[in-house]
Amino acid sequence: MRGLAAVFGREVSERRMLLLVALGLGLVPLASAYFPGVGRERPADVRSGMAALLALGLTAALALILGGSVIARDLGERRLGFYFARPLGGWTIWGGKLAAAAALTLGAGLLVLLPTALLNAGWPDPGLVFGFSRSTGLWTAVGLGAAFLLLVSHALSVILRARSAWLALDLAGALAVYVLLALASRRLAVAGASMAWTWILTSFAGLAMIALLLAGAAQVIDGRTDPRRGHRALSLWLWSLLLAGALGVQGYTGWELAGTPKDLDGVDALMVVSPGSWIAFQGWDDRRALWSAFLMDMASGRHQRIRTVWGFGAEGITVAFSPGEAWAGWLEPPPGSVKGLPLHLLTLDLRSPGSRPLESPVAYERVPETLALSADGSRVAAVTGGRLLVSEVATGNPIASVKLPVDLEFWPYANFLGPDRIRLRGLEVERVAADRKWIWQTWELDLADRQLRPLGKFGPYKRAWSPSREKVVFCNPDRRTLEVLDGWTGRMLASRPWTVEPPTSMALLADGRVAVTMATDGGTEVRVLAPDLSAELRRIPLPGEKTLFLKGQAGPDLLVAVTGSPSPRKDFRTLLLDLAAGSSRELGRNLEPVVSPDAGGASSGLFRNRSQQLLRLDPRTESLRVLIGSEKRS
Amino acid sequence: MNPIALEGLTVRYGQRLALDQVSLAVPEGSVFALLGRNGAGKSSLVRCLLGEQKPTAGRTLLLGRDVWRERAAILSEVGVVPEEPDAPPSMTARRLSRFCSRLYPRWDAAGVEARLKRFGVSPDTPFGKLSKGQKGQVSLALALASTPRLLVLDDPTLGLDAVARKAVFEELIGELADRGTTVFLTTHDLAGAERIADRVAILNQGRIVLEEEMETLKQRFRRISFPSSRKEAVTRLETLAPVAVASRGWEVEAVVSNYDEGRLVREDEPEVSALTLEEIFIAVTGVVEGER
Question: To the nearest whole number, what is the mean pLDDT of chain A?
C-alpha cells in the first residue's frame, strides 16, 4: 500500500494545477447572473446549470486526456522504466496511476461544482444540462461514464502508441464484437425484447468496464516497459473478454427467444380466439423478462411467436384467421423501430405443421381496425383510415381501396365470403339531437365492380352473437321482444315477447338455441329456447343467484355463467350449466371466462384465473386443465 | 549464491534473435562488465535482468530469485542506473529522493544530498532541466541511496564528458570500497570498465563470446609483431589461438587469445605487448573475416 500511495501521490502532485484550474472554473457560475440573456431565469438554476455543464465538460475532457496519458505517455516516451526499476509491483504502478487519473478527473469535476453547491446549499443538478427532471442517480452515472471514458482513452492511447501488428487483432475484435452485438440487437428487436436488450447493454457495458480494467492492468503487469508486449497483453485480454461476452450475448439472445408458451407465467392478453382451436395471446415470461405473443393451436400445441405492437395491448394486436382456418395473418412492426410503423403483414399456413411465416409486402401506416384473410390466404382486407383496403398478399398489389360512408367506431369485423366478396360490420354512433344512438351497420364489397353496398342497419340493443358471428340475438326494449336477426342483413329470423322483465343476459348457441337469464323471486332462472324462439326447451333454476351473466357455450350442451362482473377486486363464481340435464355446478372461483373481443360473448371454453393462468375446459370430462402459466403469479 | 545468474536466456523479436542461449553468473562482490557492440543484445539482456522484459526462453535469477516473477520484491535490494535517465521531468532530485524513500526499506537521503553536492548538481532543479550527465549522476545517487546488494548500471556514462565519466567511476569505486556491493555494468567506456571491473564478458550478436576474470583476460591476450608473411604467421601462431592477424609491410601484427611465452618461437625476436581492454574488445568483436 505504501507503493500504491506513493505512485498515487506522485501522479496527483504532478498534476495538482488541474485542481486549481477546476476550482477557478467553479467560480465562473457564481457570476452567471450577470451574463447577458439570463435575466429571466432563477439565478440559482442558472448557476446550477452552468456549474453542471462546466463540470461535465471538464470531467469528460480530463477523462480523455488523463486516460490517454497517465500510463501510455510514459510508455511511449520510455519513462515507465522509472517505476519498473523500483520495488513496485505491476498492480501497484497501474493501480496508483489509474486511481490518480480517476481521482483527478472526478475531483476536478467536484471542485467545479463546489462553489455553486456552497452558494445554493445543494449540489447542482446535471438534469438541467440534459433537460431531465431532477435525478439523484445521474451524478453516479456521470462518474461511471467518466471512468469508462478514462479506460477507453487509456486502451486507445496504448494501441495507437504501440504501433504494433496487434492493431489487426483490435480491428478484427472490434468488428466481431460489433457484428455479434448487432445481430443480437436485431434478433431481440424483431422479437420486441427491449427489456432484454436494455439488460444486455447494461451488462455488456459493465463487462466492457471490467475488460478494460483487466486489459489495462495486463498491459502494465505483463507488458511492463515494452509497448508492443503491452499492446499484445491489452488486446488479448480485452478482446478475449469482449468476444466471450458478445458470444454470451448471442447465447443469451438464443435462450431469450427460445421461449415457448409453456415458459409463460401467465396470459395477460388473449387477443383472438378462432372458431376452431387457434388462439393468439400475449403473456409474461418472468425468467426472460419478456412479453411474448404467440399463435397457438390448442389441439396440437403448435405455436408461432409473433411480434406485438408495443403499447397497444390486446386491441393493438391484429390477427386474422381465414374462413376454414387454413391461414393466419397478422401484423408486425418493423424490427428496431421506435415508431413501430409501418406494420407488415405476415401469413402462416396452418395446414402444414412445419410451415414458416411468410413476409408479405403488404404494409399499413397505422394499426388497422380490423383484418380479414381470404380462404386461400391470397387476399387481405383491412379497415384503416376510414377506408376498406384489399390487397394481394403475395405481391402487395392493391385490389381495392373504398372509402367507408361512416366511421365504424367499435368492433369492426370483416369477413371474406368468397375471393371477391367481403362483408364488413361495425358499430356506428348516430347523433340525433342531443342523443347518441349506437347502430350496427353492415356492407358488402364486390371486387368485380369495387362497389360497397349497404346490407343492413340494426341495433342498438343488448346482444349476443352466435359463435360463427352470422346471427345475433337482441333484447329489443322498444318492442319488448327477444329477436334473432341475421348478423349481416339485420333480417329478423325469430321473435318472442317477454312478459314481465327483460332477460338480464343472453347467449346464442351454435345450433341456434337461445339461452336467457331471467330474474326470479330470490334467484335467477336460465331458460333455453328453441332456435325460432317458439318454445321453451329447458329451465334451470338457480335459487340464491341474484346476478348471473351468461358467457357463451363451452360444449354442445354446456353453458358458462358467472355470478357478477369479473373484476380483479371482486370475488365471483363461475358456473357450468348442463343444458341437457338441466343442472348446474360451480366450476371455480374467480375463474374468468375468456371471450374473443369481437365475438360478442361467444365462449371459447377458456378461462383465466387470478394467477393469469389460461385454463381450458374439456367438454367431455367437464374438467379444467392448465394450458399456459404457472402458479407463482397471483 | 551468485547475485546474478542467467540460464539459457533467449530473446527473439519476430525472426531476429537478440539473445541466444545466454548463460552467465556474476559472483558476489564482483564488478562485472558486460561489453558489446551496438545491437549486440545488451539492452535486451538488461531489460530481462531487471524483469522489465520476459525472455522468449530461459530465466534470470537475481539474488537467487526469478526476477520475472518476483521483480518488485527483488528490486528493493537492487539499485538501477538506466541507460536513458527516465525520471519524471518535473520532479527535482530532492522530490525524487523523497518519492523513492517511501519504496525502499533503507534510504540514505543525506547520502543522496551529499553525492549530488559532490557532483555539483542542484537538488532543487527539475530533472528535465538537468544536462544528460547530471541526470546520470542523479540516477546514480538515487541508485546508491538504498544501499543495494546489487547495482545494475546500464551504460551509465553514455554521452557523458570525460569529467562526468570520471566522477561517476570515482563514486562507484568509493562505493565499492565502502560496501563491497556487487556491480553489473554495461558500458562502451572500456577504459572506465577496465579501471573498476574484475570480471568481464563480451556479448557479440546475441551470444557470450568471452567471459572471465579481467586479470586472466589481460594475461591471455597479447599483441605479437614479427617479420613474416601473413600465411606463415597464422601457421606459426596456431597454438596461441590468434584472433586477429594483419600484415604491416614486412611485418605481421597478430593478437593471440591464448598467450604462452613458452610456446612462442623466439627466432624472429617477436615483439610482445600487453593489450588494453578496448584492444581486446576490438580484436574479439571487430575482426573482419578477411583479416584473420
Answer: 88
Question: Are residue B122 and residue B242 in the same domain, yes or no?
Answer: no
**Please, how many CA atoms are within 13 Å of residue A419, restricted to the half-sphere of its CB?**
5
- Comparing CB atoms, the residue among A10, A88, A222 nearest residue B72 is A88
Helix ranges restricted to H, A28-86: 43-69, 72-76, 81-84
Compare all CA atoms of chain A with the CA of B73 and give the residue at the minimum distance: A87
Indicate the number of domains in chain B: 2
Q: Which amino acid is at B204?
A: N
Q: What is the pLDDT of residues B120-136, one digit of tens each?
A: 999 999 999 999 889 98
Q: Is residue B106 part of a domain?
A: yes
End-to-end CA distance of chain A: 54
pLDDT at B290 (0 to 100): 39
Is B138's Cβ below 8 Å from some Cβ in A? no
Apex B60 CA angle, B56 and B66, nearest 5:
110
Structural domain for B49, as ranges: 4-213
Same domain, B88 and B137: yes
Give yes or no: residues B207 and B227 share one domain.
no
User: Does B27 lie in the same domain as B69?
Assistant: yes
Tell me, yes or no, if A95 comes closer than 8 A to chain B by beta carbon.
Answer: no
Domain CATH code at residue B156 = 3.40.50.300
Give the whole-angstrom CA distance, residue A521 versus residue A228: 95
Compute the distance between CA of residue A523 and CA of residue B79 in angstroms, rounded to an integer.
104
d(CA B187, CA B171): 16
Cα–Cα distance list, B158 to A107, B50, B84, B187 (Å): 42, 19, 9, 7
Could you report the per-residue pLDDT of A345-388, keeping only the tens digit for each?
999 999 999 999 999 999 999 888 889 999 999 999 999 888 99
Asked if B54's CB is within 8 angstroms of A222's CB, the reply is yes
Mean pLDDT (whole number) for A425-437: 79
Tell me: do B43 and B138 sit in the same domain. yes
Question: What's the pLDDT score for residue A131?
Answer: 63
* B52 at A interface, C-beta within 8 A: yes
Nearest CA in chain B to A93: B72
With helix as H, strand as E and coil as C, how does A481-495 read? EEEEEECCCCCEEEE
Q: Residue B82 and residue B143: Cα distance in Å, rounded?
A: 10
| List of chain B residues with pLDDT < 70 | 177, 265-268, 287-292
pLDDT at B248: 81
A229 vs B: CB within 8 A: yes
Q: Which of A85, A224, A225 sits opposite B75 (nearest CB)?
A: A85
- pLDDT tens-digit profile of A583-593? 999 999 999 88
**pLDDT at A312 > cutoff 70:** no
Mark whether B117 and B262 lie in a shared domain: no
Please state the separation of Cα B96 from the chain's center in Å: 26
Instruction: Give the minimum alpha-carbon distance from B20 to chain A in angstroms, rounded to a whole number.
Output: 20
Coil, helix or strand for A191?
Answer: helix
Which residues in chain B are closer than 8 Å to A81, comparing Cβ atoms? Answer: 52, 82, 86
- Cβ–Cβ below 8 Å for B54 and A229: yes
**Chain B interface includes A16 (CB < 8 A):** no
Closest-CA residue in chain A for B128?
Answer: A79
Is the Cβ of A6 closer than 8 Å to some Cβ of chain B?
yes
B87 touches chain A (CB under 8 A): yes
Q: For chain A, say whether B219 makes contact (Cβ under 8 Å).
A: no
- The answer to whether the Cβ–Cβ distance between A224 and B51 falls below 8 Å is yes
ipTM associated with this complex: 0.87
**Rounded CA gap, A413 and A599, in Å?**
9
Cβ distance of A85 and B50 shorter than 8 Å: yes
Same domain, B237 and B150: no
Q: Sign of torsion, CA A355 A357 A359 A362?
A: positive
pLDDT above 50: residue A311: no
* Angular region, A246: left φ>0, alpha ψ -120 to 50, beta rest: alpha
